[in-house]
Design brief:
The complex is a heterodimer of chains A (345) and B (303).
Chain A (H helix, E strand, L loop, with lengths): L8 E4 L4 H5 L6 H14 L3 E3 L20 H8 L7 E6 L6 H10 L3 E7 L7 H9 L3 E7 L6 H14 L3 E5 L7 H14 L5 E5 L7 H11 L3 E4 L13 H10 L8 H12 L11 H9 L5 H12 L3 H10 L8 H19 L1
Parallel strand pairs in A: 1-2, 1-8, 2-3, 3-4, 4-5, 5-6, 6-7, 7-8
Helix pairs in contact in A: 2-3, 2-10, 6-7, 7-8, 9-10, 11-13, 12-13, 12-14
Chain B lengths: L4 E6 L3 H10 L5 E7 L6 H8 L3 E3 L2 H9 L4 E6 L3 H13 L3 E4 L11 H10 L4 E3 L3 H14 L4 E11 L5 H5 L1 H14 L3 E11 L7 E9 L5 H16 L4 E11 L2 E9 L10 H22 L10
Parallel strand pairs in B: 1-2, 1-4, 2-3, 4-5, 5-6, 7-8
Antiparallel strand pairs in B: 7-9, 9-11, 10-11
Helix pairs in contact in B: 1-10, 5-10, 6-8, 6-9, 6-10
């Protein structure tokens, strides 16, 4: 693969997707220190929000240590060059949250929908674009449908005002050919001024390989997270990816040693558990299940005595999509009842 | 004199048609007119074939017939944008308006929780909240009538096929209206609503999760009894309303997991979210009719 001379914008997820792995408990001090470290290292774009986006604070997804507003107000004034982005899932957050984020100084808004439901994003994408924000349409669980469907949905988002479209591998299920097919079609068919992005999860260990495939196919924005801190087995580990891109002579503008240090000195020490491809995270990637279900399934295993792996596989079989965290406890309760009924026979 | 109240349905779409089919079985409400704006629409043709008078010139077209046909109730299944005018014109003629749009001019109505009050007060416009609200607010109320609820959160998961373009274009309206009714009708001090649209095929049945945080330690026995009683109340008009799991208690958290299967009149059975709206709307009108027949309320006088 020859990517020599290409330029990509890396987008860090450790302070948003990483919130899943931290049960949304990252402290203000940790968030500011990590963001400053990344800014210093040259990271151009950093996402800061509840793991489930603006307005994600809930029983269903977990109450965060601080509100989105508090995190954004703490981080944004400290940035010298880096821009801050926020995620918004229509159905969870509203345009009121979007306006709040804009007022806090967020420059990039990423409006995320399931890959077949882009038409719920019209009011949010429209509003963000109207306010002059860098507006991204973020199509989640993109492995679940054919590339043509992704393109159809991407066109809707572009029509509403998005200037960048992501194919998002929320389950870490895709293999490089899957990424190539989706990104290449978006690149070929969307207007040339629309940027294409890729967001990966490392559940099958494909974060780096898939991100390279995305760049080769025409993506210019790539998500990852420092030290891989993210849902499931984490996102594409950015310090590793920076080193790989450096070897391949792709320009990122990031200082490799400095980003390595942020990973090693700041992010790894605050991990509650190692971010690795354990059997449950592997199951997410293998069965195509939304990555943030991981810790919920593990908690349900402890509480109801049903293996997380079995819960996750069943959720995959039922076609569960992002945001359906409530189904995990519900399903575990049902499976526990069935197990008890079988034991009684 | 028939005890039935005569009704018009505005909006001959999926909701209006399903409502018409349910109404034809009602002991208390008699459908007379279906009102649309397109003479060629399938919905109006369907209504005509079901023996209902049709009007293709909007609410204005039916106004001259309101008194002569003794219309007492109207169901608005159009959009929030036109509802206010529809309601004003019909209220002026003494017609009670059941609002199935998100306009919410009148008070929220969730039948097993506050319909009796609305009927006694003869509210001339009641709003049916949202599908997610109808499916979940009874459960919030079931907890809050036992002890104070500081926070109520509902998650409604609906099949992609059952979510129309109106809801999609303004999904914020769903979350805002539902959260507000979780507070005002459900009795939670703070409300939160989440909607998830799932495209799985075959389409999944509507699922709803309700989390309540009680101010003090939950009285498990009393809440469990209250929840089961409330489920029975909803089942009177939505037989496919089921408690799948719960109430589950975890500290001060009380959680219920529901499934809503529709009757499959015009809308498919999986679209319990739409069915519960039409069923709740009809139940509301029936209560007004019952109270009028029993002399509890007096309908606006007509010469």
């Amino acid at each position: 693969m020859n990517l020599q001379g290409k330029q990509v914008t890396l987008h860090d997820m450790s302070l948003r997707d990483g919130m899943h792995a931290k049960r949304h408990q990252i402290s203000i001090e940790q968030m500011v220190a990590i963001a400053k470290g990344m800014d210093e290292a040259g990271m151009p774009l950093i996402e800061v929000t509840h793991g489930d986006g603006l307005g994600g604070a809930s029983v269903n997804y977990g109450f965060p240590a601080h509100s989105d507003e508090e995190y954004l107000n703490a981080v944004i004034p400290q940035m010298k060059k880096a821009k801050i982005s926020a995620l918004l899932l229509p159905g969870i957050g509203t345009v009121d949250h979007l306006k709040m984020a804009k007022d806090c100084g967020v420059s990039t808004i990423r409006v995320a929908t399931h890959c077949t439901e882009a038409d719920v994003s019209e009011q949010h994408i429209g509003m963000a674009a109207k306010m002059g924000m860098d507006t991204v349409g973020f199509l989640m669980m993109a492995h679940m449908v054919e590339p043509e469907k992704i393109l159809e949905q991407a066109k809707l988002m572009v029509g509403y005002g998005a200037n960048c479209i992501y194919a998002t591998d929320s389950a870490g299920y895709m293999l490089p050919d899957d990424v190539t097919a989706r990104i290449a079609l978006l690149k070929a068919e969307l207007p040339s001024n629309i940027e294409i992005g890729f967001h990966g999860h490392h559940n099958l260990g494909m974060g780096i390989a898939n991100s390279l495939a995305a760049i080769e196919a025409g993506a210019t924005r790539i998500d990852g997270s420092v030290a891989g801190l993210g849902a499931g087995a984490g996102n594409t580990p950015l310090e590793v990816f920076c080193a790989v891109l450096d070897r391949m002579q792709v320009t990122t503008g990031i200082d490799l040693y400095k980003i390595m240090d942020v990973a090693e000195d700041l992010v790894v020490p605050m991990m509650d558990q190692p971010i690795r491809v354990d059997r449950d995270a592997l199951t997410l990637g293998y069965a195509g299940v939304y990555s943030s279900f991981l810790l919920f399934a593990q908690r349900a295993e402890k509480k109801y005595g049903i293996q997380a792996r079995d819960i996750l596989v069943e959720l995959g079989r039922r076609g569960t999509v992002g945001g359906q965290e409530d189904m995990i406890e519900d399903l575990a309760l049902t499976m526990a009842k069935q197990k008890q009924a079988q034991g009684a026979k | 004199m028939s005890k039935k109240l005569k009704a018009i349905i505005i909006g001959p779409g999926n909701i209006g048609t399903d409502l018409l089919m349910k109404m034809q079985r009602s002991e208390w409400i008699e459908p007379v007119w279906m009102v649309g704006i397109d003479p060629e629409s399938e919905g109006l043709k369907r209504a005509a074939s079901m023996g209902i008078k049709t009007c293709a010139t909007g609410v204005d077209g039916v106004l001259p017939h309101v008194i002569e046909d003794d219309i007492r109730v109207a169901f608005d299944a159009t959009s929030a944008y036109v509802h206010a005018e529809n309601s004003r014109k019909l209220n002026e003629l003494g017609v009670i308006m059941i609002d199935l749009t998100p306009a919410a001019i009148g008070p929220y109505c969730v039948p097993p929780v506050n319909l009796t009050d609305h009927a006694k007060n003869l509210e001339m416009n009641v709003n049916m909240v949202t599908c997610g609200g109808q499916a979940t607010i009874p459960m919030v109320a079931a907890v809050s009538r036992v002890q104070p609820v500081s926070y109520g959160e509902i998650i409604a998961t609906v099949s992609s096929r059952s979510v129309g373009p109106g809801t999609r274009q303004n999904i914020d309206e769903f979350t805002r209206t539902t959260a507000s009714a979780v507070e005002k009708v459900g009795g939670a001090k703070q409300g939160k609503a989440i909607i998830i649209i799932n495209p799985a095929e075959p389409p999944l049945m509507m699922r709803d999760t309700i989390h309540c945080l009680t101010e003090s330690e939950p009285d498990q026995a009393a809440i469990t009894e209250s929840v089961h009683a409330m489920v029975k109340d909803v089942q009177k008009y939505v037989p496919g309303y089921r408690l799948v799991n719960g109430p589950v208690f975890d500290g001060n958290r009380v959680s219920c997991f529901m499934e809503v299967e529709g009757l499959g009149d015009f809308l498919p059975k999986y679209a319990g979210n739409l069915d519960i709206m039409t069923a709740a709307g009809l139940r509301t009108a029936e209560m007004f009719a019952e109270e009028a027949a029993n002399g509890v309320i007096t309908l606006p006088a007509r010469g």
